[in-house]
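FW: tagging you since you asked about this chain on Friday. Here's the raw sequence from the shared folder, copied in full. Didn't touch anything.
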Amino acid sequence: MVYPIPMFQSFLNTEPNEIKEWVILSPIISPSDIKSSLVTDETASKSSLGYLVLNGKGATFIKCPRGSNWAAEIVPLLKETACKKVLFLGAIGGLADNVKIGDLIAGASAQNVCSISEWLMCSIKSENKEVPASLSLLKKTSLTKGKVASVPLLFSETKSLVEKLKESGCMGIEMESAPLYLACERHGIEVLGLYLVTDLPLTHTFYSDACLINDKTVLKEKLKLLIKNTLNIIGA
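HL: got it, structure written out here
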């Protein structure tokens, strides 16, 4: 399906031929955080739907709104461009015993653990598909790798669910990756998620005083390291 240009511009406020082969997609990083790394003098453009787009040397950066479907929403549009590879940079709650706040990890696979309707009905199905990351992209990073779980709402991140996910071997829990991985699989785009562990849902929640996300200085340094790892994969 070819999408009309006005629809493309409503999402991304740019022309399809301006999107590069590599797309860096993130709800937690701003264009100002990555602009110098992309070696560009351009100013990010903002779409009517709230996406920020910045074209740089070797990659297009897109800041998407935070939430379960906002990252996946634009994948059908990216299919109409030169985009072949998507690197997603997100925040994640660490579950594995060897993961601590401030760590960087890579999502070897992502799985939806419940839909909004399932959560509202207190019925979590087990057959939700686990989607792998691009193996070729995964090989380009030395970060710790593991399965991540995605939930549709912060309020669906209950203690009982988080405990079950930890027992099943999930490394972390977040909101965006499973829909994104699935969309990229369906549209033939390679994808890999890289994450900053910003809280530990079972011991140090994101709203607690002990959480890294409340320390803006430390968080900013960790985001720089996340960007550096991303550019190493791209080869920029």
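FW: Strands lie at 22-26, 45-46, 52-56, 59-63, 85-94, 104-112, 130-132, 144-150, 172-174, 190-199.
HL: agreed, and Residues 116-124 have pLDDT under 50 and may be disordered.
FW: great, closing this out.
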